[in-house]
C-alpha cells in the first residue's frame, strides 16, 4: 500500500505538468480556431505537430540540434569551470569580492548579444563565436550564485569543521562545497539558459550554425509551423540540459 | 485689448482649420524595411513636400530591420501596407493562405553591389574562383544574385551567408569572407576612402535586371475595404518618385539628412545606383523565374496558378 502511495506521489508532479501542458495546447488550439488568436501569427498546434516530420526529414534537424546543443554544452562546461572558480575566488578574498561583485551583477544585465560583431572579429565566423558569447553572457549568474552558496553555509557546519581541525582544502571540499552545491546548480542552470538563448540568438543573427539559423530560414519562408517546430527543438535542448544537470546534482549529493 | 481678442480669434480659427484638415486625412499605417536605402525612402521624401498630405493621406511609417519584420504586421492586420517586402516571402505567405496582396513593385532590379578589401587581389568576379562570396540569408534576393553570378559567369566561388551589410563588412575586413555585399549608401564611404573595391553590381547579372525583388504589399481586408485610400497612396507614391528624380536639390538635401551622409554621396547613391525604373511600382517583372526560385528555395511547393497570381497581384492606383 505504502509502495503504491510512494509511486503515486512520485508520478503526480510529472503527470500534473504534462496534463497542464496538454491543456494549455488544447486551449491555444481552441482560441486560434475561434479566431481569438490570429492563425497567421500563431499556427495551430496540430499544424506544428504535423510539421515535425517534414522539418526533421528536410532540414537536417538532427545535425543542427547536435550543433546547437554542442555549442551550448561547450559554453556550459566553460562557464561551470570558470564561473565556479571565479565565485570561489571572490568568496575567498573579501576585498576582491567587495570590489567586483557589483560589476559582475551589472554584467548580468548587459545585452552582450549585441556585441556579436566584436566576437566575430575576434573568434571568426565559426562555432567558437557562439560558444564564447554564450559563455561570457552566462558567466555572471554562476559567479553570483556560487558566492551566495558559499557565503550562506551555516556557521555551525564551519565550526564543526574547525573543531575537527580540517585543513583549508578539507574545509572547502567537505563543508563549503557540498553546502553551496544547490545554489551553484541554480547558477549553472540559469547560466545554461542564458548561454542557450545567446547561442541561438547569435545563430539567428549571423545566419550561421544550428537551430537559430534554421529558425531564421523557416521564418523567412513564412513557414510558421516549421518555425515553431524548430523552436520546440531549442526547448528540447534546454530540457536535455535540465535533465543532465539534475542528474549530476543528484549524483554529487546522493544523500538528498 | 480688441486687437488681442482678434488675434486670439484668428488663432482659434487656424487651430480649428488645421485640426479639421488632419481629421479629413485618411490614416494609413505602413511598415518599411531597409531604412536608409534610397528606394525605401519614397514615403519619407514624398512626405517632406506634402505629396501624401495633398492626396488626403496621413501616413504613419514604422521602420523595420527588413525581412519578415515588414511582412508580419501586414499579415496580422496591425498595419495596412508593407514596403520593401521580399517578393519570395510575400509569395510564400500568400501560398499559405495569409491575407496579403501585392499592390506594387518596390524594387525591380537591385542596387546592391559586391566588393573586396582594397588589399585583396580580387578585381572582378572572374577572380573569385575558389573564393567565398557573401549574401545575406538563404533565399534572399542577394542569394539569388550570387547564384546568378555563379551561373552566368561560370564561377567556382563559394556562396556564404553573412547577414546584414554591417556584419558582412566586418567579415570582409577581417578576411573571413573574400567578397562582401552591401546596399548603398552603406559602404560607399569606405569605398571613397579606398578601404574596399567595387567588384560587381547586382545588375551585372541579366537575371536580376528584369526581376522585381521587393514589393509593396497590403493587408487583404484593408485593400478590400479601403481600396480608394490605398489607390491614392500608390498615386502619391508614384508622384513622390517623380519628385525624387526631378531637378530640385531639396530632395537630395532631405535624403542626405535622413541617412546622415554628405549631399554629394546622397546624390551619387541616386544617380549611380538607383535608376528611376528600379523604383517604379507598376509591374511585377520576372514572375516565372521568381516562381522557379520560390520552389527551389522551398518558399512554396509549387508555382502559383494563373488564378492565384491574378488574386495575389493587384497593382493599385493608375499605372502609367
What does this structure look like?
The complex is a heterodimer of chains A (256) and B (320). Chain A has 256 residues and is an all-alpha fold. In chain A, 83% of the residues lie in helices and 0% in strands. Chain A has two domains: 1-42; 44-252, MetI-like fold. Chain A is built from ten helices and no strands. The longest helix of chain A has 39 residues, at 168-206. Chain B folds into two domains: 26-108 and 211-312, Periplasmic binding protein-like II (D-Maltodextrin-Binding Protein, domain 2, 3-Layer(aba) Sandwich); 113-209, Periplasmic binding protein-like II (D-Maltodextrin-Binding Protein, domain 2). In chain B, helix 5 packs across helix 15 and helix 12 crosses helix 13 (263-273). In chain B, helix 6 (141-153) links the parallel strand 6 and strand 7 (158-161). Chain B is globular. At the A-B interface, helix 5 and helix 9 of A face helix 4, helix 5 and helix 7 of B.
Number of domains of chain A: 2
Radius of gyration based on Cα positions of chain A? 22 Å
Mean pLDDT level of chain B: 89
The average pLDDT value of chain A, as a whole number, equals 91
Assign the CATH architecture of the largest domain in chain B: 3-Layer(aba) Sandwich
Distance between the termini of chain B: 57 Å
Radius of gyration of CA atoms of chain B, rounded to a whole number: 22 Å
Succession of helices and strands of chain B: HEHHEHEHEEEHEHEHEHEHHHHHHH
Supply the helix-strand structural class of chain A: mainly alpha
* Largest sheet report of chain A: none
Total beta strands of chain A? 0
